[in-house]
Input
Amino acid sequence: MPAPRQPSFMTGIALLLPITLSVAAALFVAPIAPKIAESYAPTGQYTADQLAFYIGWIITVPALCVALFSIPAGALGDRLGRRRLLVWSMAAYVVVGVLPYFLTSLPAILATRVLVGVVEAVLMTLSTTLIGDFFRGESRNRWLAAQTGTASCFAIFAIVIAGVIGRNDWHNVFLLYLMPLAFLALALAFTWEPEVSDHLTDPTVHGRWSDIPWRLMLIICGVTLFGGVMFYTVQIKLPDAYGALGVLTPDGKYDSARGGMMTAVASIFVPVGTVGFWLLSPRLSLKAMFVVEFSLMAAGFLLMARLGNPWQFTFAAGLDQIGAGMLLPTLLTWAVARLPFAVRGRGTGIWNGTFALSQFACNNAAIPAIMHFTGSIIRTLGVLGWLCLGGALVSVMAPVKRGKAG
Output
């Protein structure tokens, strides 16, 4: 019998790159949202409320779809083959992602964004699951942690390039969805269906839903929802904050290029947090990791609420993002390590769906609810700082511990 194929460095890279698409859905569009509004406002085609509705949902509906469809995506991967489904979903992502370039109707664009979200659920869930399948122990933890840093580095590119490309015509941004063709080529060349996928030929070994450690997963998902809202606040809401701080063009409109650059600078610090995870996670307990992570995020938010200079504000946001860059891989590795192979797709889908729900909750529930009481995005950031400080205090008291990687 031939020896099983061993994953290479390029296998890890091929599975990391699809994760970047998780930030592309929101961050390709968020920097051009003011431009979309400006292009339609003079036409009278939509009222101000309709514009706010469509643009808000165009940005966030992919995340809602990921939240809704990640568990079914994981279940399909467990049953039909994870790599097979990953490859087909990459091809579909390119097609539905580019469609808005040819459209002018906001309802039609919104419909394509729903499809982007459904396909994104498959991509994110199965690429993460396959990392868990191919790698073990600390190697697995490093690759899973690298997802956060890779996505954040791509976020820097997405924010900057979307702001620049969309400055004259926001439709041009959607041509960026052609890039995953390169990711598809790498997946075809360097990945394969894991040899231990016995359930693809023998349904009697298909994992049961009861094999998922539900109690632990509910705890992990609760912390993920909270931490994800904090993470996405910086990723999505900084343009609003920069507008409040006076980052404007000479005619008084939000300067998407300058604001996008500052948001990108803040996002640079997420990979710094990922490196911090690599260095600290083998040495610190899970409890200590949470205390450090939430404390960093609290300090960042509280400073953001006090600093009026845009660049000082940016580096305070960077401090927050160091904590976020550590928190997300801590949660992901904690979850994946406890999932048996046969249900790993479903379990990863549960975590992935929860993280995606945090993006939707951030933009459509948590931040609007807090702003209803604070009256401004800047004061809202201060409230988030105190909530993160509360998270650090809860971590001190909570009886949390790591599972062993399987």
